[in-house]
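Lay summary. Proteins are chains of building blocks that fold into shapes, and those shapes determine what they do. In this project we predict the shape from the chain. Here is one chain we studied, written as its sequence of building blocks.
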Amino acid sequence: MKEQCFLPIDVKENMDKLFAAEVIVPFLAGGLVTWFFSWLYYARAGRELQQEAGELRRLNGVLLRGLENAGLMKVARDDQGNATGLIIEAEVTARAKATMTTNVE
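And here is the predicted shape, written in a compact code that computers can read:
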């Protein structure tokens, strides 16, 4: 059975246009605005993270130099002077004493 539309054809066409104007356009505009502000936020957060990482890298270098200068540890460095690891040195002192007893018959 065919559906009957009680609205005139021009009203139905206008409703389709209204749907596009009242639903689709604001939906797309809201998505665009949301994307823009999200992008701004994450771009700023990324810059701040890079600054923080650089500061932590610098402070880590200061800490390693201080411990190395105090003689508490030695740091392995590459050609540019960046720390690549720790040099572990061990000094061992051994002392031994042996006593032997035998029974000769």
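What the prediction tells us: The mean pLDDT is 84.
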